[in-house]
Amino acid sequence: MSDNTKIIESVSEFLAHAIAMEDESAEHYEMLADSMEIHNNDEVASVFRKLMKYSEKHADEVHDLAEGMVLPNIAPWDYNWNCPDFPEGGDCSEMVNYLMTARQALDIAMHNEIRGRDFYAWVARESPDAEVRRLAGEMADEEQEHVDLLQTMLERKDLSSEPPLEDLDPPNMPEG
After folding, report:
1. Could you please report the per-residue DSSP string of the chain?
2. Domain count, the chain
3. pTM, 2 dp
4. Rounded to an integer, what distance in angstroms lies between the CA atom of residue 74 and that of residue 59?
5. At what angle do helices 11-38 and 42-66 cross, to 10 degrees?
6. What is the spatial distance between Cα 52 and Cα 9, in angstroms, rounded to a whole number?
7. Is residue 171 part of a domain?
8. Which of 24, 62, 86, 122 has the most neighbouring CB atoms within 10 Å?
9. Range 108-119 average pLDDT
């Protein structure tokens, strides 16, 4: 984490961060899946849909934990991330394109899930509040399960020899 990152000290502050991260993650994966479907890349779309479902489930669990609590209203620029974006929302948008392979999609997801896990692990180590540390530790463990699942998917034999997709309708660039 960067030196100017504020430690998360309360359960309500932690849950506000977790809700933002998990909701953003689900939205991000849905957007990626939709984009892949538009370009008829159904295999990658299904990978992103599966990841979206995991994120939605995790988001529902966090929303349940926060039920009945008054959470702080945190401006987007005041979240305590150690990266420019949400940890699971990804700063990988420049890597996403309609010709990406399932392996490339899984690599992006792995990057995002590791960032999410590392955020929760940081909170579990650094928060002065025991309940925040406990909750963050549990969420870090859940994110590790996602990382392990992605690792298993990445190790599948059929992904290791996956050829890049061919652009059957490349952009028409004027010669100049």
Report:
1. --TTPPPP-SHHHHHHHHHHHHHHHHHHHHHHHHHHHHTT-HHHHHHHHHHHHHHHHHHHHHHHHHTT-------GGGS--SSSS-TTT-S-GGG--TT--HHHHHHHHHHHHHHHHHHHHHHHHH-S-HHHHHHHHHHHHHHHHHHHHHHHHHT-HHHHTPPPPP-SS---PPP-
2. 1
3. 0.77
4. 17
5. 160
6. 29
7. no
8. 86
9. 88
Spatial separation of the C-alpha atoms in residues 20 and 39, rounded to whole Å:
29
Domain span holding position 61? 11-159
Per-residue tokens: 90: 């990804």
Residue 48 lies in a domain: yes
| CA pair distance 102, 44, nearest whole angstrom | 5
169 is a domain residue: no
Residue 36 has what DSSP assignment?
Answer: H
Average pLDDT score over the chain? 79
